[in-house]
Specification:
- This protein is mainly α and 459 residues long.
- It has a single domain (3-10, 23-372), classed as Hydantoin permease.
- 71% of the residues lie in helices and 0% in strands.
- The longest helix is centred in the first third of the chain and has 40 residues, at 88-127.
- It comes from Algoriphagus sediminis.
- This is Purine-cytosine permease.
């Protein structure tokens, strides 16, 4: 058997994961800690500051939002994953047939590639520091130099190879690197506190105080913006059920609690540490000059970490980008593999990595990360609602699998109409998109039940 065949067969894309392949909590702890204490955290933390958050909004809002995310993983995603032990894509195929899943998987895979691309961008800002590379600005969209292109291509190739080796390799890479990344965030936060002259909790609180006006081109974030955005920052993974593909390897649903390592060691601590780094940078003459000109100072994470802890910061940002991009590209590869089931997982994952690398060339995905993360979760989460409602109301279990060669238009309507309506509402009324993610999710699930009620009566 070739290496490619072994890689494909060991991933169980179209069958339940056997008991012999189940993994304990340590595998997931390392993966989630590594994935969420990541390069993107170096961007998200500063972006909260550009939105003018207050101390209470940031510290308490993140506490609440990340708790809601952990509960979503534990009591929705992990429960359903352990019950069926199928990938998201194969489970969806049973509900709505292969043709509609193909459309969903294409959207899913492409969005994951864009997200992974933002992580390649983050790592590239660190690699570029020794080369005195011009860093992307908050408003940049296109590549700004040949050096940038070469660095992004090299990083993308390494990340793609690791992801293509399969879940075990992704998990091992996260376990190896996550302690180093967590240490880097802690050290960055402590150094920044020292540079800011913080000697007490009140000094720490006063860094953000009552908040400020948002930077040019940004909107003002309140407590609810922070809490709801942080809950749905990973909406595609938990309420969107993408992590069915990960937790199908879990021995018990309680493994879902390991996501707390990512949410609190990663998101909570790392976002605040990164925000502290940016608070230091904002006080610099360069940043103050930009603000006086009505411009938003750069949030490139490489220089921020380098200014705090030197070469250690560069290495930390590079590795942090890898550990987040690896599982994201792995998920994208599974999405594409379900479209082309006869193609090896290795090669479709390499294709996903290539798309992510191309996306990484364009800084806009990283510089507008708050907006992009909200949008991709908003698009993908409603399909997760259909899986949740189908599971708990036993729709497919009672009525049987949907014919593979047909299009389940009822699922298509339930997935597309609610988010489309709420997206238009957000666009025309200015309502923060993340505020509408839960209503769209719930309405998709309820609409699905309404549309299949006749099917349940005859089951």
């Amino acid at each position: 058997m070739s290496d490619n065949q072994e890689t494909t067969s060991s991933e169980f894309e179209r069958e339940p994961v056997p008991k012999s392949q189940l993994k304990g909590w340590k595998s997931f702890l390392g993966m989630y800690a590594g994935e969420h204490a990541a390069g993107t955290e170096f961007v998200i933390g500063p972006l909260f500051l550009t939105a003018g958050v207050s101390a209470f909004d940031l510290i308490v809002g993140l506490l609440v939002g990340n708790l809601l995310a952990v509960l979503s993983w534990r009591f929705l995603t992990a429960e359903i994953a352990v019950k069926h032990r199928l990938t998201l894509y194969y489970q969806l195929e049973k509900i709505c047939g292969r043709k509609l899943v193909t459309v969903y998987n294409l959207a899913n895979g492409v969005l994951f590639c864009f997200l992974a691309g933002s992580m390649v961008t983050v790592s590239a800002t660190a690699v570029g520091v020794p080369f005195d590379m011009e860093m992307p600005k908050l408003t940049d969209t296109m590549p700004n130099s040949v050096t940038w292109v070469v660095i992004v291509l090299a990083i993308g190739a390494v990340i793609s190879l690791i992801a293509a080796r399969g879940y075990s390799m992704v998990s091992k890479a996260a376990n190896w690197m996550s302690p180093f990344i967590v240490l880097a965030f802690v050290v960055c936060g402590l150094v920044a506190l020292n540079q800011l002259g913080v000697g007490s909790f009140s000094d720490f609180w006063n860094i953000w105080g009552e908040g400020s006006e948002p930077f040019p081109g940004q909107i003002k974030y309140t407590f609810w913006h922070v809490a709801i955005w942080s809950w749905f920052a990973n909406a595609a993974m938990h309420v969107g059920m993408s992590d069915l593909s990960v937790f199908r390897f879990a021995k018990t649903p309680s493994v879902g609690w390991t996501t707390a390592a990512g949410m609190y060691v990663g998101h909570y601590m790392a976002w605040i540490a990164a925000a502290l780094l940016y608070a230091v940078y904002i006080q610099s003459p360069e940043a103050q000059s930009m603000l006086e000109q009505g411009l938003a100072p750069s949030v490139a994470p490489g220089p921020l970490a380098y200014n705090a802890i030197g070469a250690f910061g560069i290495v930390a940002v590079v590795i942090a980008g890898w550990t987040t991009a690896n599982p994201t590209i792995y998920r994208a590869g599974l999405a594409f593999q379900s479209i082309l089931p006869k193609t090896s997982t290795f090669w479709v994952t390499m294709v996903a990595g290539g798309l992510a690398t191309i996306a990484g060339l364009f800084p806009a995905f990283a510089m507008k990360l708050l907006d992009f993360v909200a949008l991709y979760g908003f698009i993908l989460a409603p399909m997760g609602a259909i899986i949740v409602f189908d599971h708990y109301f036993k729709v497919t279990e009672r009525a049987g699998d949907f014919p593979a060669n047909q299009v389940n238009w009822k699922v298509f309507i339930a997935w597309s109409i609610p988010p489309l309506c709420f997206y238009l509402l957000s666009s025309f009324s200015g309502i923060f998109l993340s505020f509408l993610t839960l209503p769209a999710w719930l309405l998709s699930g309820v609409l699905y039940l309404i549309l299949v009620k006749d099917k349940l009566k005859t089951a």
